[in-house]
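[Automated response] Your request has been received and processed.

Submitted sequence:
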Amino acid sequence: MSSELQSISDYQNLIDRISETYDAGRHRALQAVNSQLLETYWQIGQGIVEFEQGGKVRADYGSALLHTLSRDLTQRHGKGFSRSNLTRIRQFYLAYPKSATPSHFLSWSHLVELLKIEDTLERGFYEKETINQKWSVRELQRQKKSSLFLRLAAGKDKSQILRLASQGQAVEKPSDLLRDPYVFEFLKIREPHTLDETDLETQLCNHLQPFLLELGKGFTFVGRQYRVPVNNTHYRVDLVFYHRILRCFVLIDLKLEEVQHHDIGQMNLYLGYFATEENGEGDNPPIGIILTRNKDELLVEYATYQMNSQLFVQKYQLYLPDREELRRELELTLQATANLKSQENDQEK
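Generated structure:
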């Protein structure tokens, strides 16, 4: 009987090895096809732009070139040469010089979404994050729609904004986790609403995948209504996560109304409990985030005076942020930095 079991085990190992080899080979083949497609599109874009720049088409007919190309190439090759696709192919060549060819981890569908972003700083951020986080096209679309770059750039100086654009989001310290604000538009809750905190918590858990996407990289869900026993009283943390990069628990409490000082004190209690009772070997101190619809900055400042620096009170909203308002704030920050630099240069002269 043992010989028969060994034979079954050996056969199962063979199945596993073949499957792993097949999956790895298929992945490499898809990457190779994708790389060749991007190279082909880049060369097509180069041909179009060089034709235009070489004066081989009169200026007044330039706008009709892509339309004519689309018609003739479609007749010859079939699908793939719509005017919109040729427009993106041309834009692809202009946006990515040969020395800056995008990663082969990006598909053409990813690049089409990226090319829709006119601002180079913003496009650079989404490109890096798509690669780093392995976002699907749908996830990239969601993060663009929620203005993630503009939210992360809020409150940063020019050097930090440039670093964010060129490297993506680095998670090295607790404050790197924060969004301003968090956006839960994926819940599709219309205003006015009659939610209570339990309903909101349930909705977020029912939409865990987009919620984790909004929280950012590194989060692993641990549980909801996590019990915190202190003497004979049982408290409960709304949501508990573990952050793989920072190696710590992240505790989240949800508030529908404005945060009060006792809410902050309660979160500080949770942090003390987790640091003492739940942390394992190698774990860093826990992080606490209170998510609220409204935030009294002065109250928070006083209530957290000399308190744990890893306790944050952040706003959330149930609808997409005003993109133009966020962009104006970013432009004001960049302009203020440029003006300051100019003044410093004048003083040196």
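Summary generated for your ticket: Residues 2-111 form one domain. The longest strand covers residues 219-230.
If you did not submit this request, please reply to this message.
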